[in-house]
Amino acid sequence: MARRCRLMAYLHNSEFTDPILKAFADILDVKDTTKPKEPKELDDFAVAEYLYKVPKMSAKEYKAILMYLNSSGETSLSWLSYPDPEYQAMVLPPNAKRLREYHENRRTYSCHSSHNANSLIQFRKPNTDEVPITGVIRTILEVPFHGFLRKFILVAPDRPIDIVNTPYAEFTRLMASLVEVEPYKTLMVIEPKHDITHLASWIRPSWTYPGIHKRFRVVCWALGRGRK
Q1: According to the lineage, what is the superkingdom (predicted)?
Q2: Where are the beta strands (DSSP E) in 24-96?
Q3: pLDDT for 193
Q4: For residue 36, what pLDDT is reported?
């Protein structure tokens, strides 16, 4: 133990000029990468520069995010609305950066068009205590709001299938269920804080189980290892 403590003290307090020793010290002195980075606050100039470089959202995307913010208690105005006379509401910018993926807790979440497997998720429905549901990430938008960059994820929720005549109804510890091959077309807005885990997914042929006469998907959220 004493030898290990001396080694760690040496690694922390010494500056290595030899590149080989420095590389070796970096291997031994492993940095903690699990801690989330503190978000960087943007000043007005940085926000203006950011918005100048990114395209406008579609009207449908903008309306969905605006509704999500207002339903979450963050009173927000459309950029087409008159200014709030009491300056209590923030205006949601019309521009957003389209991301192919983002990283959260050392995991990568992607749009379906970018990476199918990384787009399948289990998540919590915002502002409810309902059981988590599954879905497919369609779009990831990054918007400067309240001085910080925020990611809004547009998810197509899965359409569940009754599992009463399948093994999954009895063996709940399999953490799996059945959904239709294609999810709902109506999109739901969430944020990274609502993500729980990725899914494993398999398409199965019709009549795999009694009464299911069309193809379907088996989705399994055991990858989450009990995360809630």
Answers
A1: Eukaryota
A2: 76-77, 90-91
A3: 93
A4: 57
Global pTM reads 0.79
What the block records as the tokens of 152 is 């809004």
Domain spans of the chain? 96-224
Which are the contacts of 168, defined by CB distance < 8 A and separation ≥ 6?
Answer: 174, 176, 177, 178, 218
Rounded Cα distance, 159 and 133, in Å: 10
Provide the phi-psi class of 7: left if phi over 0, else alpha when psi is between -120 and 50, else beta: alpha
The pLDDT assigned to 15 comes to 59
In the predicted model, residues of the chain with pLDDT beneath 50 are none
Question: CA nearest 142: which of 92, 186, 184?
Answer: 92
| Per-position b or e across 41-51, b if 16+ CB within 10 A of its CB | ebeeeebeebb
Strands 133-145 and 120-123: antiparallel
